[in-house]
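Chapter summary example: a protein plus acetamide.
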Amino acid sequence: MSKPAARERRDRTVGYIQFQPEFGEVKKNLDKAEEFIRSVPDADLLVLPELITTGYEFLDRDEVARYAEPFNGGPTARRMAKLAREFKTTLVIGFPEKDTRHNRLFNSCILVTPDGMAHVYRKIHLFDREKELFDRAHNQPPVIVTPAGRIGLMICFDWLFPETARLLALSGAEIIAHPSDLVLKFCQRAMFARSVENGVFTITCNRIGREDRVGRTLMFTGASQILSPRGDLLASAPEDQEHVGLATIDLNAADDKMITPHNHRINDRRTDLYRPLLSS
Ligand code: ACM
């Protein structure tokens, strides 16, 4: 019997940009992000951390409101659109978002495609003091079709809720882009499970450094990483240094959901038994 023809590879170069922002210095932080983006002109997809234009530890909601910007047409979206067009790349970046029409503040990220179009995701699982600073969003985590692949978005603490990555996989994500400002130590290892159980690439882009603005010290844990659908570590960063990590991936690996010849990660779920998961 002849072997089935091998599928043509769909190679993409994807990466993270791990860095340390200066609190409140939006222009300086965007300049630094731009410098890093310019240093890897051939990447198809680059992920930057959560709230990277401002820093993380806001004093209160009023301070968030002073820095927040609309997801479309604000300084971050404009700068990213220009770079995405120039380098024909897809960019993901986290920032505080203001929805002025509804007087809401969100911890958001945008994905900007090479044509300059911005798609927003608003964090649904708020971490610790974020509950005082931001509104809880009600959007589904989106999957966006881009030249770099079908990209699902989640932000930092969403990692603790496996439903987030599962929703993205069920919506067809091949890559999960995961901008983060991690302070707990568990996430990077947990993302191994998110990658393997869903059969997707994951790119966790964390920040580094410390902030002590509200009478406590937060140390951000770095160690950004790119994982394959089989849990292979394709790139990883140190815990305390700025770092750009890249990997060339074949997107086909995320479309093959078989984990043994008899087991399909999605079709083998026992949804007939999962109903209790939906009751609170
Ligand atoms: C986090 O969600 N920034 C820990």
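Key point: The first strand starts at residue 11 and ends at 18.
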